[in-house]
Amino acid sequence: MRLSRYFMPILKENPKEAEIVSHRLMLRAGMIRQQSQGIYSWLPLGKRVLDKVNKIVREEQNRAGAVELMMPTLQSAELWQESGRYDAYGKEMLRIKDRQERPMLYGPTNEEMITDIFRSYVKSYKSLPLNLYHIQLKFRDEIRPRFGTMRSREFLMKDAYSFDLNKEDAVHSYNKMFAAYLRTFDRLGLRAIPMRADTGPIGGNHSHEFIILADTGESEVFSHRDFVNFDIPGEDTDFDDVAGMQAIFDKWTSVYAATSEMHDESAFDQIPDADRLSARGIEVGHIFYFGTKYSEPMGAKVQGPDGKEHLVHMGSYGIGPTRLVPAIIEASHDDNGIIWPASVAPFDVVVINMKPGDEACDSLSEDLYAKLNKAGKDVLLDDTDERAGTKFATADLIGVPVQIIVGPRSAANGEVEVKDRKSAARDVMTLEAALNRVAG
Fold it and tell me: Is the confidence at residue 203, as pLDDT, over 70?
């Protein structure tokens, strides 16, 4: 992509409405634009990051055995009346009527609809276990949307729903998602700590929020420092291994971790002072087993091996990609801008032509651009006529992991300068060495 032909509206001044770092940097980098309160357009640079986040989320859901579908954003009120939630859900739900005066709603979540899909087609335990997911826009009319896409009214959500014959099998499905979430956040460059969440009237210990530590987090969290060193499940993890999945869950819930709502001061005090971790946190995912809460009122049953009908046991598993993007920024930035993990960076490398019109600079920049593209890299070529300081500031602001700087003096010698965005280390090297470093 040539920057001269790209749409990336950079802001030079800090937006007054931005209260936290991620909101400020996303607006300045031209990633998003607010259209109304709590509702945003994702501009090209932001969309590239969001797509890469979604790709990783999909890969890990698929790896764990979940199956993707797509449900509509508008839902019939009848399903919610059937479950008993239509009147109970608060003003966060946007209720509307179609031209036939039928009550509809803009879905804030999809438990009712997925239960309806399941009960329409699945009749036997032989079709279980089943986990269905989608990545779809949701709407919740937050009373106070804030912090950009961190807490917006319209947002993208990956929500998955598991169906099992009994609680024992449902716990295994829960454990699979637990491990998948650990892998997902790790691939996004985040260290997420699973913290036990309130299970409400269902009880038990199968509800966890995944929290990343950040100074601008919404809530205070308390945990044992051991979480920092726990091993993430590997790419070869066998998600069908019941004992293996339980072992991962047991390991990651073996030491204390709680949000302020679930905090037990006496239990936290038993941890040695050096191992206590108290910080601010951002929730990036939530998994929850809710048994027959929806299958019972909606009649979602399957025939069991005993020939009798059984209510299925369900769980739900959420990740908010439009929330994850600012969360990553909160965890990875400096005074100059964003520092993207390589896995979700909008571009892998930016080639900065310091003097467009100079024969050596143009030739070397074009050669780099063509060869890196051929190697399968996402490349941004800064071929604009901006001043050097502006080019450097833009490259730092948008956070591309590697910058290749092509100046007249070095280009004449067939050399370039390679800068690592995270460490700020700079190295002068030949064109071939630069290609090997970035594409190799």
Answer: no
Q: What percent of the chain has pLDDT over 70?
A: 98
Cβ atoms of 326 and 356 within 8 Å: the answer is: no
pTM, two decimal places = 0.95
Is the model's pLDDT at 198 over the cut of 80? Answer: no
Is 193 in a helix, a strand, or coil?
Answer: strand
CB atoms within 10 A of CB 294: 26
Q: Within the chain, what is the greatest distance between any pair of CA atoms?
A: 81
- pLDDT grade, residue 196 (50/70/90)? confident
Whole-angstrom Cα distance, residue 217 to residue 225? 18
Q: How far apart are CA 281 and CA 220, in angstroms?
A: 6
pLDDT of residue 199: 66
Q: Which long-range contacts (CB under 8 A, 24 or more apart) does 116-124 make?
A: 116/79, 116/298, 117/69, 117/71, 118/161, 118/163, 118/300, 118/312, 119/295, 119/298, 119/299, 119/300, 119/301, 122/163, 122/302, 123/302, 123/303, 124/302, 124/303
Q: How far apart are CA 395 and CA 406, in angstroms?
A: 13
Contact residues for 41 (Cβ-Cβ < 8 A; gap 6+): 32, 33, 35
**Tens-digit pLDDT profile for residues 117-140:** 999 999 999 999 999 999 999 999
Rg of the chain taking only CA atoms, in angstroms: 25
Q: DSSP state, 4? A: G
For residue 264 the two structure tokens come to 């037990």
